[in-house]
Specification:
The protein contains 10 helices and 12 strands. It is of the alpha/beta class and 376 residues long. The protein has 2 domains: 122 residues, Rossmann fold; 155 residues, Heat Shock Protein 90 (2-Layer Sandwich). It has a 5-stranded parallel sheet, with helices on both faces. A hairpin with a 2-residue loop joins strand 9 and strand 10. Helix 6 packs antiparallel against helix 7 and helix 7 packs parallel to helix 10.
């Protein structure tokens, strides 16, 4: 679009630009140019400054005030040569300034440059708009996926709650009847051992499910306190002793130094008990599981069996290990429960094979004197 009150200038610029392949619309007044631009926005405006009714500065001000037209580049054409005139042109929103009398080559070069820049800017804006649209779409998809995951997570939590609470009453009846039948039949030996192992396994599963439910529901409310590692180990070993005895495995635990860590006594005892019992499962009858404490680190060594290499990366995943890798099959959800409890209080657990005849669990607890520990 060319805006100039001199017909000779309009004719000259029209011919020049049409010869360059441009479609040109010419107007002798700013008011007419604004009305036409609102209907069909051009890619570039060549704008004279000194015009009747409305000068070039006013026309440019109105263009820049219109959201639909403000991105159109404006090149001022004027015989005014003072620096102040040029500054005012740029302050009005112009992108360039050509002094009259103009040279054809200069007009061509500047028009070509600013039209190309305008097209690039428009392409960039369209690209950015498309990116925003894609980001918005992905954000909505992620939100929907998150909502579905929350539903699935709630279903899992509800299922664990159902197992841990609703199964206890009917299961107690079944186990009681089984006990009576074994006594009536005078069953002993292998049948009694099979019943006891199954009973203990079911009860452990219910207890683990209850712990997982508690962590899922109330992990934000589980306050951390100062706990002595020695008392946690004593509790864990005491609770694991019956299971170890049934497997003819001894538990060895040297005295532990008085070290305070962050956690909750009952949950940490549960975690260490699960790990000790896991080590027992990997130990041969007549061997020992050694539990040692080194400050805030606890090592649990089992003797007799190693873990298959394929099982180590998923050792602490919930229900991920289903193949039989111990004499009585898989080891349930105990390691996964222990891992979640320890993580809840800033700790961790790792597993490795010591050598060809044993595995080791290493527990790292968070010191009560670290930041957020609450110790005085």
């Amino acid at each position: 679009m060319v805006v100039d009150d001199q017909p000779a200038n309009l004719k000259l610029l029209e011919d020049l630009l049409r010869n360059r392949g441009y479609r040109v619309h010419s107007f002798p007044r700013g008011r007419l140019a604004l009305a036409a631009a609102a209907q069909n926005p051009p890619d570039l405006i060549l704008l004279d400054i000194n015009m009747p009714e409305m000068n070039g500065y006013e026309v440019c001000d109105r263009l820049k005030a219109n959201a639909k037209l403000k991105a159109i580049p404006v090149i001022f054409l004027s015989a005014l040569s003072e620096v102040s005139d040029k500054l005012k042109a740029f302050q009005s929103g112009g992108v360039d300034y050509i002094s009259k009398p103009f040279q054809f080559e200069e007009v061509q070069a500047r028009v070509d440059t600013h039209v190309q820049l305008h097209h690039l800017q428009r392409s960039l804006q369209q690209h950015n708009d498309r990116l925003e649209e894609i980001v918005g779409l992905r954000t909505r998809e992620l939100g929907e996926a998150h909502a579905r995951l929350k539903i699935l997570d709630q279903a899992k939590t509800d299922f664990l709650t159902l197992i841990s609470h609703e199964f206890r009453t009917p299961l107690g009846g079944l186990l009681g009847v089984g006990e009576l039948l074994l006594e009536e039949c005078g069953a002993d030996g292998e049948l009694r051992d099979m019943f006891e192992q199954s009973r203990r396994r079911i009860l452990c599963l219910l207890e683990d499910a209850a712990v997982l439910s508690e962590i899922e529901f109330a992990q934000e409310k589980l306050a951390s306190e100062c706990v002595a590692v020695s008392s946690v180990l004593d509790g864990a070993i005491t609770r694991a002793a019956a299971f170890a005895k049934s497997r003819h495995v001894t538990l060895e635990a040297p005295p532990c130094a008085p070290t305070l860590v962050q956690g909750r006594q009952d949950l940490l005892v549960k975690a260490l008990q699960s790990l000790v019992e896991t080590a027992v499962r990997f130990s041969d009858p007549g061997t020992a599981v050694r539990v040692a404490c080194h400050g805030t680190q606890v090592s649990i060594d089992g003797g007799g069996r190693t873990i298959p290499a394929s099982a180590i990366p998923k050792f602490f995943d919930l229900l991920s290990i289903r193949e039989a890798i111990t004499p009585d099959g898989d080891f349930g959800i105990g390691p996964a429960v222990a891992h979640r409890i320890l993580s809840l209080f800033g700790g961790s657990v790792a597993v490795r094979n010591r050598d060809s005849s044993g595995m080791q669990l290493t527990v790292s607890l968070k010191s009560a004197y670290e930041e957020g520990g609450g110790a005085e």
